[in-house]
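Much of our argument rests on the idea that a fold can be written as discrete symbols. In the encoding step, the backbone of a single protein was reduced to a row of integers, each denoting a local shape. We regard such an encoding as a compact summary of how the chain folds. The record that follows shows the chain in one-letter code together with its fold in token form:
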Amino acid sequence: MAYQEQPVVTTETLALGYGTRVTNIRTNLDANRQRFIESIHLYTVSGRELADLRVSNPDEKLSDITQLLTLRAEKGSVDRP
């Protein structure tokens, strides 16, 4: 998937890629939030942008109840940002 012309992955996709649980990925992000820079390592999407993302990426099956989505850029998806 792309967001702002950058390849990104959802937390769920990242967990699948690393063979771990989504909660582990979220816990890691929360514990290291200061190391990640918005628009470089990750993107936080909500509101109209999230609604548009759902429409433009129907294959991603983004939940309708999700109000805030964290997308990881390649730079934010490896072991070190």
